[in-house]
């Protein structure tokens, strides 16, 4: 690991430098470098096989890089940690398919996701339960499911299940949320609502969103990174990236 401490590194929540991952000689990540700031939202786009999922796997400790630095919060070396410890640090990941507890209510899904000891209603623990209820209500407010709190998760629409799962991540109070293709299968209206939800979450958390839907990416209103063959092809504002000749050539089409 480099011993130089740059302002870019110290001010970052996530710092990837020269990260490479090979599968049987094929480079899924090829000296990938990227810096995400505290409280930043970043959209990651790129063609199939560009390395987006592999990048998320490296950040969450599912895949070990062959080379490069992956640092959290300016100093924590994620390449030396296992998945559970990385989650414990405050990195939450949402996969593409919602994985809520279908036979539980919306309320209980959020409660089950919360950190900390559970208590069975003893008066000694009453104060703690009230704090938990307040936190739960706050999460339900953020994800727009307050009026659906008593419904079974199984009865929610696909979009509502995605929001519930985002709420379950929020309940763990992560510093960084990684969200994989959240709007796949959503209606246009749900897609718009999801962009607004993530934008509101990004006011208090760093968020990295992998997505193919360019209307949605535009609605996020954040910096965009386009990956191709395991490295950064283009990075910047959506207008600049989406009109970049190479991005058009390899991803968006003419
Ligand atoms: N466990 C693995 N073993 C072998 N090859 C893999 C493995 N995981 C990923 N790859 C390969 O690495 C490359 C990058 O895959 P990755 O899933 O990271 O791309 P992606 O950008 O997420 O694509 P998509 O948009 O299709 O999800 C692909 O060519 C893929 O086939």
Give the SSE map.
Layout: H1 7-10, E1 12-23, E2 26-37, E3 41-45, H2 52-59, E4 67-72, E5 76-77, H3 83-89, E6 91-94, H4 106-113, H5 126-143, H6 158-170, E7 176-180, H7 188-201, E8 206-210, H8 214-220, E9 223-228, E10 231-236, H9 238-242, H10 245-252
Parallel strand pairs: 3-8, 3-9, 6-7, 7-8
Antiparallel strand pairs: 1-2, 1-4, 4-5, 9-10
Helix pairs in contact: 4-6, 5-6, 7-8
The protein binds adenosine-5'-triphosphate.
Task: Identify the overall geometry.
Answer: globular
Rounded Rg: 19 Å
Strand order of the largest sheet: 6-7-8-3-9-10
Number of structural domains: 1
Strand content: 15-25%
Instruction: Give the full name of the CATH homologous superfamily.
Output: P-loop containing nucleotide triphosphate hydrolases
* CATH topology value: Rossmann fold
Extract low-pLDDT stretches: none
The total of beta strands comes to 10
Helix count from the secondary structure assignment: 10
Average pLDDT figure: 91
- Element pattern in H and E: HEEEHEEHEHHHEHEHEEHH
Report how far the terminal alpha carbons are from each other: 41 Å
Structural class: alpha/beta
Largest pleated sheet: 6 strands, mixed
The hetero compounds bound to this protein are: adenosine-5'-triphosphate
Organism: Alsobacter metallidurans
GO cellular component, one term: plasma membrane
InterPro entries: AAA+_ATPase, ABC_AA/LPS_Transport, ABC_transporter-like_ATP-bd, ABC_transptr_urea_ATP-bd_UrtD, P-loop_NTPase
GO molecular function: ATP binding; ATP hydrolysis activity
């Amino acid at each position: 690991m480099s011993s130089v401490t740059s302002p870019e590194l110290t001010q970052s929540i996530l710092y990837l430098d020269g990260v490479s991952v090979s599968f049987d000689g094929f480079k899924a990540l090829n000296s990938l470098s990227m810096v995400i700031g505290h409280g930043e939202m970043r959209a990651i786009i790129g063609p199939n096989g560009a390395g987006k999922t592999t990048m998320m796997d490296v950040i969450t400790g599912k895949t070990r890089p062959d080379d490069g630095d992956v640092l959290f919060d300016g100093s924590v070396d994620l390449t030396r940690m296992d998945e559970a410890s990385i989650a414990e640090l405050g990195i939450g990941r949402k996969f593409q398919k919602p994985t809520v507890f279908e036979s539980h209510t919306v309320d209980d899904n959020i409660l089950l996701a919360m950190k900390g000891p559970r208590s069975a209603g003893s008066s000694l623990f009453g104060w703690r339960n009230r704090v938990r209820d307040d936190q739960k209500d706050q999460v339900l407010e953020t994800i727009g499911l307050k009026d659906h709190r008593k419904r079974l998760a199984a009865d929610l629409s696909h979009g509502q299940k995605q929001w519930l799962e985002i709420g379950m991540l929020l309940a763990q109070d992560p510093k960084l949320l990684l969200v994989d293709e959240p709007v796949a299968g959503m209606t246009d209206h749900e897609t718009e609502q999801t962009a607004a939800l993530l934008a509101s979450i990004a006011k208090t958390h760093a968020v990295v969103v992998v997505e193919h839907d360019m209307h949605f990416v535009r609605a996020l209103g954040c910096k965009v990174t386009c990956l191709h063959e395991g490295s950064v092809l283009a990075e910047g504002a959506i207008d600049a990236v989406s009109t970049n000749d190479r991005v058009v050539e390899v991803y968006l089409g003419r």
